[in-house]
């Protein structure tokens, strides 16, 4: 039996003025968005991973406010288990890396989940959007 790989990843729910940042991967043929972030590298803490990935993908620094939620993605060959941090932008202007081809600031409301990849859509349907930032 072939061993299947499990990865750990972090994602950022970056909020600003009643909206959140959603990014679109450049190597996919569907028009759904996801939250920015990526996989843990050996020796990193989840928060260090978050900050590095956001810097690499968006060229900004974030201020993680709190650990917000968890998520899981399972494919035929691998699984990703991750956490979502609620964040604000600390400094910088968004410049996308080659990994993403566009981004949007979507309203911080349940209806925005329809634009998100199923992994995040399913999680967002259970979020209390009225109390995300208090």
UniProtKB/TrEMBL annotation:
Entry keyword annotation includes Hydrolase: yes
Entry-linked InterPro entries: Nudix_hydrolase, NUDIX_hydrolase-like_dom_sf, NUDIX_hydrolase_CS, NUDIX_hydrolase_dom
Bilayer-crossing regions: none
Keywords: Hydrolase
Residue span(s) of domain Nudix hydrolase: 5-130
Single GO MF descriptor: hydrolase activity
SUPFAM superfamilies: Nudix (SSF55811)
CDD domains in alphabetical order: NUDIX_MutT_Nudt1
Top-level lineage group: Bacteria
Record family assignment: Belongs to the Nudix hydrolase family.
Protein name as it appears in the record: 8-oxo-dGTP diphosphatase
Gene source species: Clostridium intestinale DSM 6191
